[in-house]
Amino acid sequence: MTLTSHGIPAGRSTAAEPTLRATGLVKTYGRVVGLDGVDLELFPGEVLAVIGDNGAGKSTLIKCITGAEVPDEGHLNLQGNDVQFKRPQDAKLAGIETVYQSLAVSPALDIASNLYLGRELRKAGILGSLFRMMDTKLMRANSKSELDRLGISTLQDVTVPVENLSGGQRQAVAVARAAAFGSKVVVLDEPTAALGVRESNQVLDLIKRLREEGIPVILVSHNMPQVFDVADRIHIQRLGKRAAVITPQSHSMTDAVAIMTGAATS
Amino acid sequence: MSNATQTGPNPTAERKPVDLAAEFLDRSTPLSRVRNALHRYPALSPALVLVIAVIVFGIISPRFFLANNLSLITQQVAVVGTLAIAQTLIILTAGIDLSVGAMMVMATMVIAQTATQNNVPAPLALLLGLVVGLAAGTLNGLLVTRLKLPPFIVTLGTLNIFVALNLLYSHSASVVGQDLPNLITATGNTFKIGGIGITYGVVTMLILYVIMAFIMSKTAWGRHVYAVGDDKESARLAGIRVNRVLLSVYIAAGAIVAVAAWIQIGRADAASPNAGVDLNLDSITAVVIGGTSLFGGRGTIWGSLLGALIVGIFRNGLALAGLDVLYQTLAVGVLIIVAVALDQWIRKVRK
């Protein structure tokens, strides 16, 4: 297989436009340079892993893409349109959903309420428009079918409070929330960091499921075996820059670590 | 003995501890089932306490169930019960409001003084009271959201500020009911249901409860209030504008406090700058006994009405039983500690 300089399969780079393209992202914190002109492309239906050492700019890169930080310079382009995000809500509205390692769900609320948190559906007619009444029944039914679609069979009762779930199930709720509602890009920031082995595997299966559904995924992870298991391409950050983009086929884990630490270039 | 002669492992003896351990892990004991039920329905325990208290006090004193006494209890509960709605909203966001009493007194004085000294028409005077509540709530909300100060400190400060402003404004002078327009004291008027005198103030409180319970359980705003109190960061990441929700909670609380001011004037048939500042603690007591968690995100509006009723009935029942007033205070103190201890225990369901 011939690869371009950024590891994009040669045939593909001409065939498909990236869903998300970041160009020349710069972010500085005082005198500390977080991002030093980073590019990133995410193609339809792929899992792009982002790896790098601590301080390489992984988190900053993700924050700039998801609206948690505003880059000093650079452009974001989502499905051919230039976009600017001032807060996470902007990215969410544009179709970029994020799952955080901190299991960002509301423990006391039930599964359906968590899936619809911040975008509750209202009843039709005067009950919804004047009295602002939520359509709990519809939200529960939709949540159920959404979980079924993603193959999350461990969550059957959507009225169970999230605090009664295991860590893996909670993360499944978070992933389902990100993948539902027709999102264009799902970003997962260390989604398995707080989970055990079996629960991590459930989340990795979910990621593969998202790819099958055609939703492109950005996966930030420290865990090399996981990255090499699910990723189509791997974006390696080093010292605030993109050091290389490789594929699990073209490089080994040892190669990836070497690039990460600067012992080798791509 | 047969045990002593056995050399190899005994299969039955070995399996037994494993089963015990599994049972232990399963934790499906009656006690844990009670805990799970209380966890799911936070108003369950105050409802039980209320029923038991009514039965016990009814047995102790035959006068407890007299129409006049029941009427008295509802009137005594009306003001604290209304303030408790405001307090519930704030405690659900994991905050606390020490200033509700002072805020209410300030609103009563503005209503009474503008109506008597400035000859402002009664509806407009009540509206001015509402404006005072909204402004005071907005001040609290802005200090909490913009300066990021803890609600306890903010409202401890504004408690003192409101008390001082109120005394400066009112010159420490009370206004008696007969000087006030009828509309302003109308919350003290009664009508009879089955021989029990009910004031319009009590009805106003109940209407507020119905409205707020609806908003908290059926609207997105209500759910967002719970989410913010439950886990602020998760709520923010879910796309909820946390500061906007918090500010709106403090403003809504201010509006409810202004209604409490109106009920207070009717109940006391006067507006006094010195009475009611300490109702802040009574409102917190009602909310806590009503099963709302001080850690936020858990509890119901109706629970606070139960909490206010429990306190009212304990005070009333103990007084009827001929006990010294100190024992009422003692009982309320014990209730608070039991309620919070129960809340801690219930929250252990969280894994």
Automatic annotation (TrEMBL), chain A:
Database matches in SMART domains: AAA
Name recorded for this polypeptide: Sugar ABC transporter ATP-binding protein
Keyword ATP-binding: yes
Domain ABC transporter: 20-264
InterPro entries membership: AAA+_ATPase (IPR003593), ABC_carbohydrate_import_ATPase (IPR050107), ABC_transporter-like_ATP-bd (IPR003439), ABC_transporter-like_CS (IPR017871), P-loop_NTPase (IPR027417)
Alphabetized Pfam families for the sequence: ABC_tran
Alphabetic keyword roster: ATP-binding, Nucleotide-binding
Keyword Acetylation: no
GO molecular function: ATP binding; ATP hydrolysis activity
Organism name: Subtercola boreus
